[in-house]
Amino acid sequence: MKPVLVTHGGTSSDVSQSDGCLAAAYAGHESMDGGGDSLAAVVSAVGVLEADGRFNAGLGASLGMDGRTMSCDAAVMDSAGRLGAVANLVEVPYPVKVAVRVTDTPHHLLVGIGALEFAKRLGLHRPYEPTATAVAEFREHHAAIQNAPERTSGSADDSQDDDGLAAIKQFWNFPGSWNDAIDQWAQNTVGAVARDASGRFAVAISTGGCMPALLGRVGDSPLIGCGFYAGPAGAIACTGIGEHIMRHMLAARIYMALELGIGLRRAIDDGMRRLPEHVEVGVIGITAEESEVVSRKPMASAQK
Questions:
Q1: Exposed/middle/buried for 215, CB within 10 Å: 0-12, 13-18, 19+?
Q2: Distance from the CA of 293 to the CA of which of 31, 203, 266, 270 falls in 20 to 30 A?
Q3: In angstroms, rounded to a whole number, what is the distance separating the alpha carbons of residues 142 and 45?
Q4: Is 10 helix (H, G, I), strand (E, B) or coil?
């Protein structure tokens, strides 16, 4: 079977950044050409995207609402049953390398301090500074934060509070005061799916988080069946606003349609239709016969 690898740079990425996705796709595909399997290929590809600096993952992770924290999530899965993920991981520039090593443990998901200590044991802990772009975007949104209305009652409701700033103000849980914070929206999850010469499938996904977000927020990216899924029928990676993707377990829903014999494009379209039209969402997928990149807005992507 012909090896194929597909990458994406996230729903907030620009198509002009597809060169980064292409470099990642080449790196992953080269791994399979050298005899590597699909899991090694997607880890290699996502590692290139984490190192790029233009995407919201790894070295390009967004600054948190306190202006200091860069909290990352990552996950991997393949059709042979290997599954590993990390969440709220800090001071690790390549989270996908930690996620894949979780597959060597009896567990599937490590979070927070446990994930950090695991990364240290692997020699993957390396504090790093935010990119100039991350700092600039952080400062740019200061006015939006400062001018957000106060919210004193009720629950978070997307229809009434699209950016969530009022609710974040109400439940602020970072050290320091709200007035010192700056914030932004970001949905630049990166991902890769692959099929190797033996017909095995794999997916890897990595993100620098979503803004606005409270300290400790976990989105869809490291949650099996939400941001990613892989099995004998193929592999799926999602990107977009995680809270909406989580509600519909989008990756698992698409994958289950594949198991029923529904074509990849139709399965993706049917799954995405469950999310409100205004919600940014994108999906890449691969099966034995097909590969697709589907997004509600143009985003960086590539296939090799």
A1: middle
A2: 31
A3: 34
A4: coil
Residue entry with tokens 């934060």: 145
Dig out the tokens for 168 from the structure: 């974040």
The one-letter amino acid at 253? R
Residues 6+ apart with CB under 8 A from 199: 1, 288
For residue 49, give both structure tokens: 């995207």
131 is catalytic: no
Alpha helices, DSSP H, located in the chain: 18-33, 38-52, 95-102, 112-121, 132-140, 142-147, 165-170, 242-247, 250-259, 264-272
How far apart (Å, rounded) are the C-alpha atoms in residues 179 and 238? 34
Q: Which residues pair with 80 in a beta bridge?
A: none
Are 17 and 196 contacting, i.e. CB atoms less than 8 angstroms apart? no
Out of 7, 103, 189, 287, the active site residue is 189
Find where tokens 């978070």 sit: 156
Cα separation, 119 vs 134, whole angstroms: 24
